[in-house]
Write a structure and sequence with these properties.
The complex is a heterodimer of chains A (186) and B (174). Chain A is α/β, with parallel strands linked by helices. Chain A has a single domain (3-184), classed as Thiamin diphosphate (ThDP)-binding fold, Pyr/PP domains (Rossmann fold), CATH 3.40.50.970. Helix content of chain A is 38%, strand content 19%. Chain A has helices at 3-10, 25-33, 49-59, 71-76, 80-87, 117-124, 138-146, 173-184; strands at 18-21, 39-41, 65-70, 92-98, 101-102, 108-109, 128-132, 152-157. In chain A, the strands form 2 sheets. A 6-stranded parallel β-sheet of chain A has the order 2-1-3-4-8-7, sandwiched between helices. In chain A, strands 5-6 form a two-stranded antiparallel ribbon. Chain B has 174 residues and is an alpha/beta fold. Chain B has one domain: Rossmann fold (3-Layer(aba) Sandwich), CATH 3.40.50.970. Chain B contains 6 helices and 6 strands. Chain B has helices at 6-20, 35-42, 55-67, 79-95, 114-130, 142-156; strands at residues 25-28, 49-51, 72-77, 100-104, 134-135, 160-164. Chain B has a 6-stranded parallel β-sheet with strand order 2-1-3-4-6-5, with helices on both faces. In chain B, helix 1 (6-20) runs parallel beside helix 6 (142-156) and helix 3 (55-67) runs parallel beside helix 4 (79-95). The longest helix of chain B is centred in the middle third of the chain and has 17 residues, at 79-95. The radius of gyration of chain B is 15 Å and the shape is globular. Classes of the chains: A alpha/beta (186), B alpha/beta (174). Chain A binds chain B through residues 18, 20, 40, 42-49, 51-60, 77, 79-80, 82-83, 86-87, 173-174, 176-177, 180-181, 184-186, and chain B through 25, 27, 50-54, 56-70, 72, 86-87, 89-91, 94-97, 157.
């Protein structure tokens, strides 16, 4: 499964979750699957999606927060895993679409080929850590994860080959902020 | 609370002013010059300070809190300005996410350890260049400066920075 196919499985399972997207094709493919008002599309600041998700989760403990992260982005700010585990938010679910590549910049390899990111999440202290290596494990894995208190982590191993990515995000960044704040009920 | 030093009392006043201005989410990375404020925020059974691993992740945490309706404040040393630049330029400034940055001013006027000298002479210009206003108040101007920065953030929906020179919050530091 590639990242697009993984997102096409996950997105229809979402309810009123607020979803923080890392920058790159993950934003674009998720927006193509469904442009939800609770989607925060991060078009820059690579590495900060779980930080933004944590700040949101701590401030809105009654809402479920999902982070769509990538392997390159997670490797960029891996200390964030320790920060999440320390704050221990019950409503925080961290999905990593791991295609072992910086897909958006031309599929250059990342180091996740040599590093099991799920083991790092577990060692950091996440409450539940799962992985899906095959497409048929994905839906059950996600539903299992969000049925338990967080912080949860789901590693989704993807192949480094995607069809044409979804279109670029058309919303102005300031509009994305306003839309998500409305979805939060701010 | 008991009897504290003058610097503890002042930090308590600063925190009271921050709270009066509506600031209700505090994160950052440790620094000696803003240390008294971090200590006050970490006091008691319900500490309000979220320790971040690096300054840009603190800026990210604050952004998430703002999405949830909080009014965020990030504490850091000016060495973290470098780490924060990408977050400020590609997140806060274009997404209109305001955050108050309270920054320990190491290397002020070239008097500090070698690792602080270059950032000490550049940090004001770096922030001004990207469009983050900078204030460097004396102790007796700090409370008013916080109110001004909060007003600026509401008006522009972008970050504002207050630099804390040695002695302003922490008289023990030379």
């Amino acid at each position: 499964m590639n990242t697009r196919e993984a997102l096409d499985q996950i997105v229809p399972l979402l309810g009123d979750e607020l979803v923080i997207h890392t920058t790159g094709f993950i934003c674009r493919d998720s927006c193509a699957a469904a442009d939800r008002p609770g989607n925060f599309y991060m078009i820059g600041s690579m590495g900060l999606a779980p930080s933004i998700g944590l700040g949101l989760a701590m401030s809105r403990p009654q809402r479920r927060i999902v982070v769509f992260d990538g392997d390159g982005a997670l490797l960029m700010a891996m200390g964030t895993l320790a920060m999440v585990a320390r704050e221990n938010p019950k409503n925080f679910y961290h999905l990593v679409f791991d295609n072992e590549a910086y897909a958006s910049t031309g599929h250059q390899p990342t180091h996740s080929r040599h590093v099991d990111l799920d083991k790092i999440a577990l060692a950091s202290g996440y409450a539940h850590v799962l992985r899906a290596d095959k497409p048929e494990q994905l839906k059950a894995g996600f539903l299992n994860l969000v049925s338990k208190p967080g912080p949860g982590f789901l590693l989704i191993k993807c192949i480094n080959r995607s069809p044409q990515p979804g279109a670029r995000i058309v919303h102005e960044p300031s509009m994305i902020t306003r839309r998500v704040r409305e979805a939060v009920g701010t | 609370m008991g009897t504290g030093t003058a610097s503890q009392d002042f930090a308590r006043n600063v925190l009271a002013t921050l709270e009066a201005e509506g600031f209700n989410f505090f994160t950052g990375v440790a620094d000696s010059l803003v240390g008294p404020l971090i200590a006050r925020l970490s006091d008691g059974p319900n500490p309000r300070y979220v320790p971040a691993v690096r300054e840009d992740t603190a800026v990210g945490l604050a952004a998430g809190a703002y999405l949830a309706g909080r009014w965020p404040c990030v504490l850091m040393q000016n060495s973290g300005v470098g780490y924060s630049l990408n977050a400020l330029t590609s997140l806060n400034l274009i997404y209109e996410i305001p955050t108050l940055l309270i920054i320990g001013y190491r290397g002020y006027q070239g008097k500090d350890a070698p690792e602080h000298i270059v950032m000490g002479r550049s940090c004001e210009a770096l922030l001004k260049e990207i469009g983050v206003p900078v204030q460097i108040p004396d102790a007796d101007q700090l409370l008013e400066t916080i109110a001004d920065a909060s007003r600026w953030m509401k008006e522009h929906r972008t970050p504002a920075a207050i630099f804390i020179r040695p002695g302003v919050l922490n008289s023990e530091h030379a």
